[in-house]
């Protein structure tokens, strides 16, 4: 009741009234918070993309296990999620193909120097 009665009625904090949804408890005649909105603002850094991807990866498991349910949404999360998968996937694919070529050329090319040059050209 302090939040609804005094804090949100102060002129400097009235802009928060749209961010909190109350429900009146019929048993105690008090107000319960059933939903609220919070903005997480971060300052710009040099590694902005990597930090947004890291933040997204940390928030997803928290959304599933905590008793306080929340939704993490930012319009850039869709792009950052794709960015995180598009960086790792080509590196893994390239590494796997180089390893496969190394194994195949080890058995097919007899000369070790020829094997080395073949791997470098691929």
Automatic annotation (TrEMBL):
Record GO cellular component, one term: membrane
PANTHER family: PATCHED DOMAIN-CONTAINING PROTEIN 4, PATCHED-RELATED
Residue ranges of the TM segments: 87-110
Official protein name in the record: Patched domain containing 4
Source domain of life: Eukaryota
UniProt organism field: Oreochromis tanganicae
Keywords for this protein: Membrane, Transmembrane, Transmembrane helix
InterPro entries: Patched_domain-protein
């Amino acid at each position: 009741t302090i939040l609804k009665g005094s804090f949100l009625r102060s002129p400097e904090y009235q802009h928060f009234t749209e961010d909190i949804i109350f429900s009146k408890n019929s048993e105690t005649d008090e107000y319960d918070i059933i939903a609220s909105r919070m903005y997480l603002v971060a300052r710009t850094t040099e590694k902005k993309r990597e930090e947004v991807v890291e933040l997204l990866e940390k928030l997803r498991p928290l959304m599933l296990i905590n008793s306080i349910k929340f939704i993490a949404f930012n319009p850039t999360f869709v792009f950052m999620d794709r960015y995180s998968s598009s960086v790792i996937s080509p590196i893994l694919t390239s590494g796997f193909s180089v390893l496969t070529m190394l194994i195949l050329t080890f058995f097919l090319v007899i000369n070790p120097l020829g094997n080395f040059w073949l791997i470098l050209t691929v």
